[in-house]
Amino acid sequence: MLSLSASNAMSIVATAAALSLPISFCRSSKLGTKKGVRGFRVFAVLGEESGVDKKNAWSSLFDVEDPRPKNPKLEGKVLKAAQALEVARFDIQYCDWRARQDVLTIMLLHEKVVEVLNPLAREYKSIGTIKKELAELQEELGQAHKEVHISEARVSTALDKLAFMEELVNDKLLQDRNTTDTEQASPSPSTSTQSLDAVKSRRSRKRLDVSGPVQKYHPRLKNFWYPVAFSSNLKDDTMVPIDCFEEPWVLFRGKDGRPGCVQNTCAHRACPLDLGTVKDGRITCPYHGWEYSTDGKCEKMPSTKLRNVKIKSLPCFEQDGMLWIWPGDDPPSATIPSLQPPEGFLVHAELVIELPVEHGLLLDNLLDLAHAPFTHTSTFAKGWSVPSFVKFLTPASGLQGYWDPYPIDMEFRPPCMVLSTIGISKPGKLEGQSTKQCSTHLHQLHVCLPSSRNKTRLLYRMSLDFAPVLKHIPFMHVLWRHFAEQVLNEDLRLVLGQQERMNCGENVWSCPVTYDKLGVRYRLWREAVEQGIKQLPFTTKSV
């Protein structure tokens, strides 16, 4: 028998479900607010109307007009931009209406369960009849829940396609506008030569050109917080030498346990300080015993009178298990980006690997997943089929998104970090069409620190939201490193080949295509930084 409190609880659950409907206005399209554009649609997935009676106390919450009779009539064989907008808009409306109907069905079925188990009703029914009715209702309820999940997936897919179509339409409008400007600039054949030169000049400014020997890094690239080491690698009596923008530095902890970063060169005779030792919060030069604190001040000069000597130091902080430095001349920003794994993930491996490639080329490689079934045939992409079309779906002004058809989310986080979350079922296999549909995940962090023009310090962190016991298996970190180096070696031979061609004058971005979107945006962001543009593209950050 169902008590009164249980009945109330069931009503509360139903009401809560109603308040969490996937309503279409949760994620709106930017184009929907522009004048002259009424919205657009991609395609409509039509289903059958539920047979459950909708006349009850909740009907007002779900009283939404069925949009199907208003399905737009498409004209012509080619889908124009305005028609595409209408189709996508109809798609969202239909998914909204369908989701409301599915949730209402569940709520009504809950009511039927309460009615069947009502003490007054039970007096007139046999136990067998009640069991039969409950079994039927349970089956109907399970089907209704399934329909809700399908509706949620449809809404998510429709919204994703809406964002993708929005970007395509924006690009088309921009292209049409540029074409109009070009035609207006060329009113007659007599001025065609001058106009063609102007068009070529505009096109050359937009074209990515990453060719020739790697030039010295622009000072503006230094004005960011850079993660340079993992906290676990820096003990009280150890040091970590690094190169950053072709300058040598060394990290160590002071007397208070806080990290510091000083120039890895003794002020006396230019001996590398990392050849010495760390004791009592000071680093000691192995040549003549001069000792330096974390702010670079020399606090001890054995066998001579102490002078006011100081070596260069950098702002250094510890956050999220990583050590950060600010190598630029501008004042450091007040906030440091968070690189913590998502909630529910446990860090299993932290690796540091020195690679003989320019850090921009390595970032290009990490931001590209389309190469996986061709390059990584012996590691994680073994057995992957080659999709007929690969896309990276992202907002019009963002540096993050997800890969289609792979269940992988990816983000470029300035100035040199790549974060990715991969939905997996077992090693080497993919599951589902999106990370949300996958039950287990692997989260990766790649930090590509520019050590020099032809050298990158790679920091790699791997986290899992399953199998926590792996963290306690002896020598597991050796196995993780082996796997990581296998994957990197598959990439390295290709990127080294690119670097060789680039140094000979070839443009490594001569012909970008659809799936190169995130890599192109990284390059445009980097160009904007080097040019000193105040409002950086694809971000909210100003410099």
Task: Summarize this entry quickly.
The chain has helices at residues 4-19, 81-116, 119-122, 127-185, 192-206, 359-366, 372-375, 476-503, 517-531, and strands at 226-230, 239-244, 247-253, 259-263, 277-279, 282-284, 291-292, 298-300, 313-314, 316-319, 322-325, 346-355, 391-393, 400-404, 408-413, 417-424, 440-452, 455-464. Helix 1 (4-19) packs antiparallel against helix 2, helix 2 (81-116) packs antiparallel against helix 4 and helix 6 packs antiparallel against helix 9.
Observed structural traits:
alpha+beta, 543 residues, seven-stranded antiparallel sheet, 9 helices
**Averaged pLDDT:** 79
Q: Give the low-confidence spans.
A: 1-55, 185-205
Largest sheet: 7 strands, antiparallel
- Our measurement of the CA-to-CA distance between the termini, rounded to an integer number of angstroms, reads 67 Å
Whole-number radius of gyration? 30 Å
Global structural class: alpha+beta
Described by the principal axes of the CA atoms, the overall outline is elongated
Helix and strand string, N-terminal first?
HHHHHEEEEEEEEEEEEHHEEEEEEHH
Relative strand content: 15-25%
Q: Work out the helicity level.
A: 25-40%
- Read across the widest sheet, the strand sequence of neighbours is 12-18-17-16-15-14-13
Note the total helix count.
9
Q: How many E strands?
A: 18
